[in-house]
Amino acid sequence: MDIELPDGIVAVESPLPGLRIDTPTAKGTICFNGGQVLSWQPAGHEPVLWSSVHSRFAPGSPIRGGIPLVWPYFGNGAEATRTPQHGFARTSQWSLRDATVTPGGTATITLCLNTSSVPTETRGGLPDDVELMLQVVMDATLQVQLIVQAGASEITFEEGLHTYFAVGDITKTSITGLDQSAYEDRLDGRCHTQHGAVTFTAQTDRIHDSAEPVCIVDETAGRTIQVTKVGSAQTVVWNPWIEKSQAMTDFGDDEWRQMVCVEAVNVRDRTVRLAAGKRHLMSQTIEVI
Ligand code: BG6
Predict the structure, then answer these.
(1) What domains are defined for the chain?
(2) Closest Cα partner for 93 from 18, 159, 32?
């Protein structure tokens, strides 16, 4: 690693190469595989992000937990034909560009991925001059910002910060802030309107048309996590519930109870069209309130 790491950040090799952050304000881990934040624990709180104990930690495989990056398409894309699911960013090897820690204990880590390092057959028609940058600012809050820099040609892409949150019991958890938003239910393909808070009684997989902040109100743990965002027009809410959990090989049969995904995304009719040379930013900021 060419970058000199400051006090509070160390390189780790296990479970995959990455960085461990340990400052007076927070502890966390970031993995170069997928440019993925794996954990974040602000001082005085339990860990905020969830990871499966069945996660596969293999180079080139998605990791089940933390904040996987969805790019350049969501799911299998608008036409449902693209693979691998959720695109190549979460399975690619990212490079470290910068790592700093302020005297107050704020760690800032910047990773990058250039499409020239992605095999042409995986790139799905994108040119080889697109640069992705991930900036992670970690202290009592966690801010994750995905920056896309177009090269010499216009590009279009879908994107998402697929954040897994730890909750005490999903059946006693609600998501506020999405009241009256229109959402596409990915399970029946239809559009609905949200009334009140989102609560969980079955598999939930929805794309809400909303840029508003949300709160994850966790009655069992007695805590509320606030998620605000910039540059994202939609919020995905996902819990696989029982059968889907059993069908996923990297997800424990009962783990659906302790997690919920709340994702900042731009997908389908909110697909990003970025002119040559332009830059697009999307960020999510997470705080225990
Ligand atoms: C969510 C999707 O964003 O990701 C779900 O809305 C999907 O449909 C989930 O099941 C997990 O995807 P994956 O590829 O990580 O298993």
Answers:
(1) 9-169+209-214+229-288 (2.70.98.10)
(2) 32
Please state the atom number of ligand 1 nearest to the C-alpha of residue 265: 3
**Ligand 1 atom nearest 64 alpha carbon:** 15
Considering only CA atoms, which residue is closest to atom 14 of ligand 1? 85
Rg for the chain (alpha carbons), in Å?
18
CA 97 – ligand 1 centroid, Å: 29
Measured distance CA(124)–CA(144) in Å, rounded: 25
**Contact, 283 vs 163, CB < 8 A?**
no
Distance of CA 70 to the CA centre of its chain: 7
C-beta of 236 in contact with ligand 1 (< 6 A): yes
Q: What is the pTM of this model?
A: 0.98
What are 135-173's pLDDT values in tens digits? 999 999 999 999 999 999 999 999 999 999 999 999 999
Nearest alpha carbon, ligand 1 atom 1: 238
Residue with tokens 């933390």: 66
